[in-house]
Amino acid sequence: MRIMRNILVVAALATLAACVSPQEQAARTAAERHADEIECKKIGFTEGTEAFADCMLRLKEIRAQEENTRALRRARTPSPWWGPYPGYPYRYYPPYYW
User: Fold this and answer.
1) Nearest-5° angle of CA 61, CA 64, CA 69?
2) Number of domains in the chain
3) Is the whole model's pTM more than 0.85, yes or no?
């Protein structure tokens, strides 16, 4: 029983550690926007112009495309711990030639 309780505690802590509060998410979004503003200013666009807004939009699109690419790679990459069935690519029993 003690082992089960410890496993549940670890699972609950891992679940809570993965959560992000709305404040943290807003802070991350604000930091990304600030970095984009600095990048567009560094390129030479002046804030408040249509070209600056286009630069900001393009950087946002690039970030979204990179996130999409990362998600596709994660989906295509097989897990190192299991395959289509347990024991993949090996059988449960040794081959006959052993």
Assistant:
1) 125
2) 1
3) no
> Torsion angle of alpha carbons 35, 39, 41, 44, nearest 10°?
-170
* Cβ atoms of residues 33 and 52 within 8 Å: no
Alpha carbon 9 to its chain centroid, in Å, reads 25
For residue 84, cis peptide bond before it (omega within 30 degrees of 0): no
- The size of the chain, in residues, is 98
C-alpha 41/C-alpha 47 separation (Å) is 7
Structure tokens at 29: 């979004």
pLDDT digits (tens, 9 = 90+) for 14-53: 676 667 788 888 999 999 999 999 999 999 999 999 999 9
C-alpha–C-alpha distance, residues 56 and 59, integer Å: 5
**Structural domain includes residue 46:** yes
What is the domain extent for residue 47? 21-75
